[in-house]
Amino acid sequence: MNDLPWYVYQQSLLFLAAMHYPTDFKKGVTLKSYNALHRALKFKKPRDNKFDDDFCAGLIALQMTGKDSHFETWLWVWLNRVKPPKAVKMVDKIALFAPGILIAVSIKWKKNPQKKWFRHAKEKYLFPLKRIKRSKRIESWE
After folding, report:
1. Per-residue pLDDT at 4
2. How much is the CA Rg of the chain, to the nearest whole Å?
3. N or C: the chain end with fewer CB closer than 10 Å?
4. Does residue 34 have a pLDDT over 70?
5. Residue 116 pLDDT exceeds 70
6. Is the pLDDT of residue 111 over 70?
7. Helix or strand or coil: residue 2?
8. Does the CA dihedral 102-103-108-110 come out positive or negative?
9. Are 18 and 12 contacting, i.e. CB atoms less than 8 angstroms apart?
10. Opening angle at CA 61, ends 75 and 123, nearest 5
11. Tens digit of pLDDT for each residue in 40-60?
12. What are phi and psi for residue 58, nearest 5 degrees?
């Protein structure tokens, strides 16, 4: 079985992911993206030093499964587990690539606003919606 070329493993991992059958497979550096996808499909703890790979894999897993709440919880736990400066950088990337997800994750954390990443997200990306009591006439608009 070790005589198979890498692309056979690649196609196998892609097929298993598409069928929502994540597996643990650790063979070679060339398959690390596919391993990240399988970890994300299982909502396993991501690697702290590989945010871009694991977040991208998580977004793909989200598209494949449609499990929004699972993904949001996975990301929320991840943000709360990493050190504050790194969490803030992660929030900046999430806001750039998936602002809707940042809103959903922030709503999950709204009850305890002490985390630095949450304050950063709120101050920089989330604007409180204020109701308009009375509409202005169009002539008075600035």
Report:
1. 80
2. 20
3. C
4. yes
5. yes
6. no
7. coil
8. positive
9. no
10. 30
11. 888 887 776 677 888 888 888
12. -65, -40
